[in-house]
Design brief:
It is a single chain. With 267 residues, the protein is of the alpha/beta class. The chain is built from eight helices and seven strands, in the order βαβαβαβααβαβααβ. The longest helix is centred in the middle third of the chain and has 29 residues. The radius of gyration is 18 Å and the shape is globular. InterPro entries: NAD(P)-bd_dom_sf, Sc_DH/Rdtase_CS, SDR_fam. Keywords: Oxidoreductase. Pfam families: adh_short_C2.
Amino acid sequence: MDLFSLKDKTAVVTGALGLIGKKHCEALAHAGANVVVADINEEYAKMFASELGAQHLGLGVDVTSAESLKVARDQIVAKYDSIDVLVNNAAINDMFENPAMAKDLSAFENYPLDAFQKSLDVNVTGVFLCSQILGTVMANQGSGSIINVASTYGMVGPDQSIYRNSCGEQTFFKSAAYPVTKGAVINFTRFLAAYWGNKGVRVNTLSPGGVENSQDEFFVGNYSAKTLLGRMAKADDYQGALVFLASDASAYMTGANLVVDGGWTAI
């Protein structure tokens, strides 16, 4: 079990206050890491870090801002002397303020350009900047593990039928933004793994499936029916995979896409 230990390692999680972001932080802390809770909401990032323990650090970080990331990098290195794990978890998934407009706005024919651009900025440019600014510390120290969180929709096209209710009405469309950006993340992983392999930096993708989070009953049923395990994921279903990728247990693994989706993409 020592292979899975992250004792004395420094692990940064972006989007750390999200549904699975918190579970990522908890798993890394449990494995012994000093966890940097990085999120746009600085106040809550600090609160959550203190809940994890006194040795952890909460930072307000905008992943689309190079300056914000450079400030964070300097604070992390000043406190811990190194950055050993980076979990690029921050991402935007479509949310529409007016549920009555969701179907029309999410349709490809009507999807707003500014929403598409915002997803590119956070989901792709954010991963690029975090990896460039924080990952360079790893490259310079000669070791590290970067974990880019993608999605099953980075590998397969969305099944729009799962967004139909029990009456057969389409309530929502999965837009192009999420699959496009998550597909980009998977190939960025391959690029960076090849680029920094000789620097001792491993770069892998974790592709999770959908997490149950108080969605409509019809959606949970539709989604679950498409998985081999017959259910959506729980928020903590990715903790083991994350610690595996962060630790020496995956020491000979780089450029890979670890798919943890209950069998969604197996058939």
